[in-house]
Structure formats: structure tokens, C-alpha cells
Amino acid sequence: MINKILIKKDVYSYLISPYFYISSLVLLFTCCIQFFIFQRFFVSGYGTSDLSVFFSTIPYTFSLIIPVLILQISNPECENNFPFRSVTVILSKLVSALIIITIMLVPLSIIPVCVNFFGSVDVNQVICSFFGIILYGILAISICLLCSEIINSKAAYIVITVVTMLLINSLHQIPVFIKCSQFFTSLFNELSFTWHFDSFSKGIIDTRDVFFYLITSSLLIVLTFFYAESKKGRKFFSGKSVSTANKAVSFFTVLIFVFLYTDNSRIYKRFDFTKDRQFSISAHTKKILDSADEPVRITYYRSKELIPRYPEVKDVYDYLKICASENKNIFLTLADADKKENQDILTNLNVAPQQIQSVNNNKIEYIKVYSAVVIEYLGKKEVLPFVLSTASLEFELALRFESLIKNKNHSVYILCGNEYNSNDYSYMQLLFNSSNIQCYPIEKESLVYIQDQLELEIPLIIFGTAGLSFDQSAVIEKFILKGGKVLLATSQYSVNINGDWSITKNENDTFIPVLEKWGIKFEDKIVNDLSNVRISFYSTDNNNSLNDSAQYEYVNYPQWISVLPQKNTPNGITLFWASPITQNKSLIPLCNSSSMSWTVSEFSKTVQEQTGLLYVTNPFEVEKAPVSDPLFKKEQSVLAAKLQDKITGLYNFETNENPNVIILADQYFALNILLELSGGQMSDFRNIDFILSMILELNKEDELLKIQYGGIKNKSLYKITDAVKFNKAKTNVFITVFAVIPGMILISGITIFIIRRRQNEKYKI
């Protein structure tokens, strides 16, 4: 069916052509500029090791390169004299073009290598992405071959083919700008070439996508063959041959639609090749589902407006189908959330719609959408109010499956031992409740009276200890000594958050001596870090209007530490005015500041008397980096730790051989106002995720903890924390991708040109 001579001729003719080297440079520069510059890879807070943007650029670049490639390897005048059948010529062109674009992709492999120096790159995901690009390349080559047979004019061929490729690649974007029915929205999505590439970029091989590329390519090749034969005078579309053509085209068309629109998981399969199997069900979740003796009904209420704007919701439905396939008693339904009766059901379940931005007729509008999962079992219901991706989906599902099927619920006590109350930490309670975790606030004034009612199996979260009396501290100590689980967020300092942010020392804190007896000591210092939060300040020259002369000023604030992703903080957290915890053998460190952190000591008594300040906390006056201190020493500080040694009481004559206590050096890290300030318009809820993981740690729920961490892929550039080393590595990357690799391509092209010129002169060609 294919001819090696033709393949060698086409590959050789293109490799010695300047178009090959120009195309290679265009592909390389386009992808690198888009990823490193337009996506601000090296800008703090924007850089990510997620290569999906990089790979998504390649199909659009191929739309420009492959039409020219097919034009270069096609020579109709010579092909008419070939002693080969049309199918042989066409398939040989296909293989030749595929070999050429594969060679073009080789220089791009340097990009994942460069990114891996800054952050973690999943090799399996990269391999799947390149595999998807190859399949896309086959389809793109096929459509270009068809166009080359239909269109005789080279100029018209280039224009029509490029425009057609770009349009087909962007079909899934049409519903974003034009309001379409559900049918046409699905149709545009499924017919888009790049829509089917999305799973490959995530490290998933979906047989529907594979079949779409292969079957559609086969259909286009068949049509190309028919046109090629008809140009040779063979009447394939008249007489008896028309039935053959119709049968072939109809067969492939039916196959395409079968694999596009079937939802039967037994027909298609999804293979998760990611390193941590992020898109697969864990053994723990499977075990829970297997224990379901009665039907479990899962209903996914989804608005059609979500699909073109958030393609990730497709993965949500696919993941739910995987869950349903694990047990014959699990039934899944996809419900249209835009129907009035379904909206009424969601309203009765206290599920509110979310607003998203929509562009319609050049007007920005806000529409309300739903993406809720409702689980029913034995007459009971659990709800996931809003789901957009699979990032934490399995964890949220596992909590609800445990609650429904195993009747296992999660609860926590919340105690504010500082000047605030539980309402000031309401964000945490709301998010816990949405994760099916019941919160029980405890007033410190009633702590002594209800101490016998506290259940040891329920973790106790304590924010601050400066406001606790001796009796209240004794109750907490007794709770811990009896085996209670405690997450204690405190320090020896208090901050006037609603005022000038001045810091005072809690001299009369009754629980700090208890911690010191257990080997937990806070240093009289404040941790500063170059990895910090950037605070935005809003100002206006016109006090009467917020719209006139409005300005934003951004200030790096090193006393608000942005803890980099670590083992116990895979998504990072933010800490406010934290003090370092003195390291000793009785503690297991859980998270640290970065390698570019430093500590600031209290002012001397003289300075305190003169200024009235213990520390400088003004964002505009605080030292952004310790450049003025010649004795500066970089040091990582322990910010959270867990007790591991035997403890004895200070107020109670009891001991605990195996205490279950976690200490965090910040009493404000879950405070509503600070979450808002540190997160901007989108509050920083990473801290609440950290609390949740610590609760699982206290409960020794290792399987759930593994699921929670497994859903989080660290995409930050965390490997190089030293600013000097980072800038040096950045320079090396730019030199490599914009100078070394292009230089090697140019040198190869020039060398080939010189060799060809000498051969032409030698043989007088």
C-alpha cells in the first residue's frame, strides 16, 4: 500500500528544502514565545510547570505548517507518470509528511526538559501529549491531502486550507460567542480537532479521541483516493462505482458518530497515564463503593453554558461514569440544569447557581450556571454544590460516599482563644460544611462547664491562647492528656489587625507555659520571606468617586509568608506574622519557610520606648529584603510541627504516652479578613485545605489524606528558590530555546545548502 521509494524521495526533498528549516524555526519560536513570554512563565505567581498551554499551541501552528508541507512534497505532473496506484501515492505522502513533522517535534522536546529544572514535569503526561500531537498530525495531513486534490491553484489551496484548519480547530469556541442549542454545542465540540486533544494534554488516552482521529483521517483519505482516481478519468462517482463510494463514505461517517455520541463506558475506555493517576479511582474509593448493598444514584446537574467555557466539566462527567462502572448498584444520570424542574430540585437542596461572565453580541453579560452532583442512598442525600474540575473531586466524593454508605461522618470543635470569635472564622466553617464536615463552635467562657461533654474522637481546632484563663487552659491540657486530638494555631504575639497592625507580646498567656513544658517553644522573632504575599492598595485622587483617578499599588509584604508547596502543604499556604518554632527531638516538622527567609528580632527596650513599636509592620516601611544587614543569614524556619514524645501535665497530674497534637505558629491564618486581603477578589482558601488535611492527619485517615494530596498536582516553580540561581537558570533557558536550538537548525540548513551547491557545481546541474 505504501512505497518506500516514494517516502524516501518526499522526505529527502523536503529535508534539503529551506522550507523545512523555516517551518521548524516557526514552530519552535511560536511555541516558546507563547509559553515563556505570553504566559509569563518566569513572572512570580504566573509561572507554572503545566505544559498544556505549550502543547495546545502546536495544533494551531501546524495549521500553517502542514499545508505548506503537503504543497512541497506534491508534484501532480510527475505523479501522473508514476507507475503506482493512487492509493499508494496518497498513503506514501501521508507517511512522508508524518515523518517530517515528527522530526520537527524533536527540538520541542527541550521545552519539558527546561521546565523540569524549575518545577515537576510528568514525563508520562508529556509522552501522551506528543502521542496526541502525532494523531492530530495524521488528521491534519489527511485534510490537507484532500484539499490538494480538490484545489488546483497553489495560492487558493494555501489560503483555503489554512483558513479551514483554523476554523475546524476553533469550532469548540463558537458557543462561547454565539448562543447555540445543546445539540449544536455538542456537535461543535465533538467536531473540533483541538477539542479531542484536551485529554492527551492531561495524560489521558481516551479511545473516543483516538478513534475520532483515526476514523476521520481514514474517511478523508478515502475521499482523497476517490478524487485522485476521478481526475485520472475513472468514474468513481457515476455508474456502478457510485454505490461503492457511497458505502465507504457512509461507513466511516457512521463510525465517527457512533464513537462521538455514545456514552456507554463499555464501548470506550479511558487510560490514565499520569504519574499519580490523578484521573483514576483509588482503591479506598473502590472499597467504599463495593460496600454499597443498595442502589446508589448519582445525578450530575450541569448547565450547557459551562461546556464551551470550562471544558474541564467534561472530565467531571467522565470521572463520575468511572465511579458508576465500579459497581452494578451505582446509577449515573446527567441532568439538564437549565430545565425549570431541575432548578427547583436544586433549590430545595440549597444549591445556588454561580455567576460566570459571558460575551454575547459584543456585550459582556453574567449568566447563572449549575454544576452540582447529588448522591442518593437509602433515602438520604449528599450534595456537591459546585464542581468545575476533577482536582479534588474524588476526595469530595469519598467523604460523601463514607457518610451515606458507611454512615461515617466527620466533625470538628472550634475554639477561639484570642480576641475573635467563631464568626470571624466563618469561611472555614462554610467550606467545611460544604465538604460534609460538621463544625461545633465552642465559646471559651463555657469551656469549663462542658469539658465532660467533649468527645475525644472529635478533633479540636484552637485559634490563639492569649485570652484563655488558667482554668480554660487546664481543660484543654486535660483534653490532650486524655487522648484528645488538637490542632493548635497560636504564638506569643498578637496583632492589631483592625488598626495599625502593631504587634504586642502576650505576656500573660496561660497556655504558652504548657507548650514550653512539652518542648514547644516559639522564638522571640518574626519570620520574613522573599516568598511572600503581594498586597494591593487602592487609592483615588477624588474622594467623592471611586471611578475617578483610581490607582492600585502592589507591595510585597515579607511578613505574610507564602509557604511553598511541600510534602504536607502540596498546594502551599499563607501565614501571617508567624514566629519560628524551635526545633527539637520532640517535634516532627510539618512545613518550613523557604530557603530565602530570614528572621527579625524584637526592638531593644530603648527603641520600643522611643517608637512604641515591637516590630515594624507597615507594608511601606518594612524591609523587603535583608540587604542592609551585613550579618544576614538565610535560614529556614519551622512553622508547623507535630508532637511525638511523651508529655506530662502542668495543671493536671496526668501523662500521655502518644499525644496527637499539631502546632501552627499563626493564630490568624484562617481569619476571614486576612483570607480576603491575601487572596484579593478570590479569597485564599489554601489555608482551609491545609486545616482539612491536618484533621485527617489527626484522625489517622491516611487513605483519605492520600486522596486529598493525590488530587493536587504541584505546578509551581518551586525547585529553585534562590533569586540569583533562578535568574541564571532563566538566562540559560532563553539562550537554549532562542539561540542554541535555532542556531543548530540554521547551521544544519546552511550545511545542507552548501553541500547541495557543491554537488550541483560538481555535476553541473
User: Quaternary state, please?
Assistant: single chain
The portion of residues forming beta strands comes to 15-25%
Rg calc: 32 Å
Number of separate strands:
24
As residue ranges, the low-confidence spans are: 236-242, 541-550
Largest sheet: 7 strands, mixed
Q: Measure the end-to-end span.
A: 34 Å
Fraction of helical residues: 40-55%
Number of helices: 26
Task: Give the integer mean of the pLDDT values.
Answer: 83
Shape: globular
Helix/strand/pairing category: alpha+beta
Q: What's the number of domains?
A: 3
What does this molecule look like?
With 765 residues, this protein is an alpha+beta fold. It folds into three domains: 4-271 and 723-763, no CATH class; 279-384, Glutaredoxin (3-Layer(aba) Sandwich), CATH 3.40.30; 411-710, Rossmann fold, CATH 3.40.50. The protein is built from 26 helices and 24 strands. The strands form eight sheets. The protein has a seven-stranded mixed sheet, covered by helices on one side. Strands 4-3-7-8 form a four-stranded mixed sheet, with helices on one face. Helix 7 packs across helix 8. The longest helix is centred in the C-terminal third of the chain and has 41 residues, at 723-763. The radius of gyration is 32 Å and the shape is globular. The two termini are 34 Å apart. Residues 236-242 and 541-550 have low confidence and may be disordered.
